[in-house]
Amino acid sequence: MLDNIDDDLADLNNPTLLTSNLPRSLSVLNIAELLKLEIPVREPILAPWLPTKGLAMVYAKRGVGKTLFALEVAWAVASGGAFLKWRAPHPRCVLYIDGEMPLSLMQQRVADIVKRGQGAEPDSDKLKLLSADYVDRGLNLSDKACQLELEPLLTGVELIVVDNISTLGAYGRENEGESWLPLQEWALTMRRRNIAVLFIHHAGKNGGQRGTSRREDVLDTVIALKELADDNGQNSGASFEVHFEKQRRFFGEDTRPLAVSLQPQGWTWRELKDAMREKVAALKAEGHTHRDIADELGISPAKVTRILKQQSAERLLNLCFFRPLL
């Protein structure tokens, strides 16, 4: 951190500080020039949903597990490992900026990741933490002075995790579009410098991301984490559904929602349709009606019927193909 911020405020517009080596003047490309331009391919940081220069957001209600999710993403990227079904091709330097957690709790969560040992540990210089609890005056990324202070920490960084928007991007009223603009411009500056940014955010009372929807305009990916009930209808630890609400670079199977759970032995996941099928079958075995099952799981009775018919057909098919020969 710099000690004398006031002495450096005059340099805030210096292009060597806050931008890459892009042309400073307006430069128009005609079609021929555009097609001839050699533009680096955006490589995956965590395939398929987080590319280089990517801007993404993960949001959830309090207590669902968004910080656990974000830490695991940072760990996978920094180690060149994997989290759930997503893989990092090789290690990249990650700066995790936390504006909410006590440092002692953050220490415990990182220790838990190490203890689970589900992947390689990153080199110590690949994953760095900037905690508001370790800074006497706090952090506000919407503030130009704070952005300038951050500059010395960005050398070699390819991913910044901002956890979370509410605590690190304070500027005006959260539900107004203008409140997002300073943080958006900072994120776009990072993108021009080939640094990806993953924002962590809270869900509102309506279940969507809290505040202005304008945030989603510039983002490549938006992920919603939603509460997942276990087979007894009770939440057990960090269990949630992963839903891709916006994606620009991937489609099909990669966008299917997941049912995710953190168990003592580590993270487990499966496609949500498989989890739903298991819940329907379990409730049916307990004697519940189709209507009861639909109400319990928040789906239509017709969908319950389709799932049960499909399961019956699959059992019959298995009997036909795997019936022992006489």
Structure notes:
With 326 residues, this protein is α/β, with parallel strands linked by helices. It has 2 domains: 6-20 and 44-271, Rossmann fold; 288-321. Helices cover 32% and strands 21% of the residues. The chain has helices spanning 15-18, 31-36, 66-79, 103-116, 144-150, 165-168, 181-192, 272-285, 290-297, 301-321, and strands at residues 44-46, 50-51, 55-60, 82-83, 86-87, 93-98, 127-131, 157-163, 196-202, 221-227, 239-246, 258-263, 266-271. A 9-stranded mixed β-sheet has the order 7-6-8-9-3-10-11-12-13, with helices on both faces. The protein is globular and about 70 Å long. The N and C termini lie far apart (79 Å).
Tell me what portion of residues adopts beta-strand conformation. 15-25%
Characterize the largest beta sheet: strand count, sense, and whether it forms a barrel.
Answer: 9 strands, mixed
The chain-level mean pLDDT equals: 85
Helical content, roughly?
25-40%
Report the oligomer.
Answer: single chain
Distance between the termini: 79 Å
Q: Rg to the nearest angstrom?
A: 23 Å
Number of strands: 13
Q: Which runs of at least 5 residues are low in confidence (pLDDT < 50)?
A: 1-18, 231-235
What is the CATH topology descriptor of the largest domain? Rossmann fold
**CATH H-tier superfamily of the largest domain:** P-loop containing nucleotide triphosphate hydrolases
CATH architecture of the largest domain: 3-Layer(aba) Sandwich
How large is the count of helical segments?
10
Total tally of structural domains: 2
CATH structural class of the largest domain: Alpha Beta
The main sheet orders its strands as 7-6-8-9-3-10-11-12-13
Q: How do the helices and strands follow one another from N- to C-terminus?
A: HHEEEHEEEHEHEHHEEEEEHHH
